[in-house]
Amino acid sequence: MESKSIGSKIAKARRKINISQAQLAERLFISPQAVGKWERGESIPDITTFNRLAGILGVDLNYFSENFPSTNDATTPSPTLEPQLLTNFNGSDLPKSDFTGVIAHQRKFNGSALRGSNFAGADLTGSSFTSSDVRETNFDGTNLTDCILSTIDLTDASFNKTILVRTKFSKSVLSQAKFTDATLIDVKLTMTDLKKTIFENCVFNGVDFKYSDLRAQCLDSQTFIGVKFDKSTLNEATFNGATLKNVSFRPTYALTNKYYRAIKTIRFDGAMMDKLTYAALKGMGAELSKVTVI
What angle do CA 199, 204, 205 make, to 5 degrees? Predict the structure, then answer.
């Protein structure tokens, strides 16, 4: 493909839909300088970017071919490519990207490099992040309702006042990830490493921590309603000053001496809990001398 011809076609199609180089660059998550180089014939997009360009410019992918008639350029719509652009970011290299405030339902960010990206205030309802690098990502105030975050690295991610409803975390690392002033409703944290996750002033309502690792986790002063710690590892965890209502603690194995010893390492000093939760923990040998029954 001849770079000057391609550049001319990009420029003509861009002008036809009345957007600037900067606006096109923003939609492609690249710099305006890169678009300028294409249009001057100094470089050409890669094949993935050609697909995105076709969707944005409303042209057929063949439009960029040297054999495509110039008289018909920018007139053939591409109905199948634009939806793919709008929904599929799989395999994208997008570190430190700015997604603040976007409305992006059911997007796919699977296998993507998103380290340091900013999703603050975005609505990502129904989106998925699988096998992605999401370290240091900002999810403050983000709507993560019905989102899937599986087998990903969320080290140092921030979840301040994040909306977490039916969100599913599984087989992921949340080392130093910080949840502050967040309400987690019907969230599932399955087979997830939470040993070094930070929770501050959070409410857990209907949350399931199945098979998760919470060893030495500080859960002091949090509120737990209808929560399941079924088959979780809780050795040395603390619930000091916490409120627990209808909370289930089930062992990863049968009620052996090993399990009783593990339960006795959990601290509930100053906690408040309902009668049923208190009775269940007492029956498993938990130290509850400083607990208030409500």
Answer: 170
pLDDT digits (tens, 9 = 90+) for 14-54: 888 888 888 888 777 788 898 999 898 888 887 667 777 87
> Residue 1, class by beta-carbon neighbours within 10 Å (0-12 exposed, 13-18 middle, 19+ buried)?
exposed
* Cα 37 to chain centroid, rounded: 34
Give the model confidence (pLDDT) of 152-210 as tens digits: 999 999 999 999 999 999 999 899 999 999 999 999 999 999 999 999 999 999 999 98
Q: HEC string of 141-190?
A: CCECCCCEEECCECCCCEEECCEEECCEEECCECCCCEEECCEEECCEEE
Alpha-carbon distance of 293 to 86, in angstroms, equals 52
Cα torsion angle, 283, 284, 289, 293, sign: negative
With 90 as the cut, is the pLDDT of residue 226 above it? yes
What confidence score (pLDDT) does residue 253 get?
Answer: 55
Rg (CA), the chain: 25
What is the C-alpha separation between 180 and 86, in angstroms, rounded? 31
The C-alpha atoms of residue 287 and residue 281 are separated, in whole angstroms, by 8
CATH of domain 3-83: 1.10.260.40
pLDDT tens across 250-278, in order? Answer: 765 555 666 678 888 999 999 999 999 99
Q: Which residues, listed in sequence order, are joined to residue 101 by a DSSP beta bridge?
A: none
Polymer length in residues for the chain: 294
Q: Which residue has the tokens 């296998």?
A: 111
DSSP conformational letter for 33: H
**Residue 285 to residue 262: CA distance in whole angstroms:** 10
Residue 138 is encoded by which pair of tokens?
């900002």
Q: Which residues, listed in sequence order, are joined to residue 225 by a DSSP beta bridge?
A: 205, 245
> Which two tokens mark 87?
């929904």
